[in-house]
Specification:
244 residues; alpha/beta; five-stranded mixed sheet
Length: 244
């Protein structure tokens, strides 16, 4: 064997040895990547299952809450609490029917009833609030014509939901001679159709509707004015009282 072949021959075994050593490394790397891929896929599958499970649980909770909120078939739904805006009061008060009785305090501390005016004509003007511009003009107009109403055999009473102190302050400030009744519980206001839904600046609320009622000597409602306009109103009521 020549020297050249001797020199080449040892390279072949060592090359084979290196190749043999590299093969396990590649296999280990491949196995590692495969294991990582399996773990990643397993993690994704687990996450997907967990998400699906939680979605199902959430769906069950949502469905159960909807079922609880929905009323059973054949049973009426539970009424909403009275915190919502109540419906406007509608009165069946009409001309020709008997005037609703009332018993309320007036300025000065006395008590006034419908029976106090039996056999006499009576004007009841309902105003929203004491000492406001429209209500002040209306009360002053009725005071101005108080003598004329008396000559026509007609008494006049002003009614609002203001407390007595506010009524008395209103009376003293404008020198009103018309008795002012305080209906803080709205019982009389509702009975005479002077309490209902109003609107201001786009908002709806319950309050006093400016209304006037003329009761005849027979105790029956002779005439009703609703949505009263203050200017000239007291004179119109006086004309009606004179013609009754």
């Amino acid at each position: 064997m020549s020297k050249k072949s001797r020199k080449k021959s040892p390279k072949t075994p060592s090359g084979i040895a290196k190749a043999k050593k590299q093969i396990p490394t590649k296999r280990a790397t491949t196995q590692t990547k495969s294991a990582k891929a399996q773990r990643t896929q397993a993690g994704k599958s687990t996450g997907t299952i967990a998400k699906a499970g939680s979605h199902k649980a959430a769906s069950k909770q949502l469905n159960s809450s909807k079922s609880a909120a929905a009323p059973a078939k054949g049973k009426p739904a539970t009424a909403k609490p009275a915190t919502t805006k109540p419906a406007a009061t509608k009165s069946a008060l009409a001309e020709g029917q008997k005037a609703p009785a009332f018993r309320l305090p007036r300025d000065g501390g006395d008590v006034v009833t419908l029976a106090d005016y039996a056999g006499r004509k009576l004007v009841l003007f309902f105003y929203p609030r004491a000492d406001t511009p429209g209500c002040t003009r209306e009360a002053i107009d009725f005071t101005r014509l108080a003598g004329d109403f008396a000559d026509a055999g007609t008494a006049v009473l002003g009614v609002s939901a203001d407390p007595l102190k506010a009524q008395e302050k209103f009376r003293d400030k404008h020198k009103l001679s018309i008795p002012l009744i305080s209906d803080e519980t709205h019982g009389m206001l509702e009975a005479y159709g002077a309490w209902g839904e109003k609107s201001m600046y786009g908002k709806s609320f319950l309050g006093i509707l400016r209304t006037t009622v003329l009761v005849g000597a027979d105790g029956k409602v002779a005439k009703v004015w609703r949505n009263v306009r203050v200017d000239g109103h007291a004179d119109q009521v006086l004309d009606a009282a004179r013609g009754l």
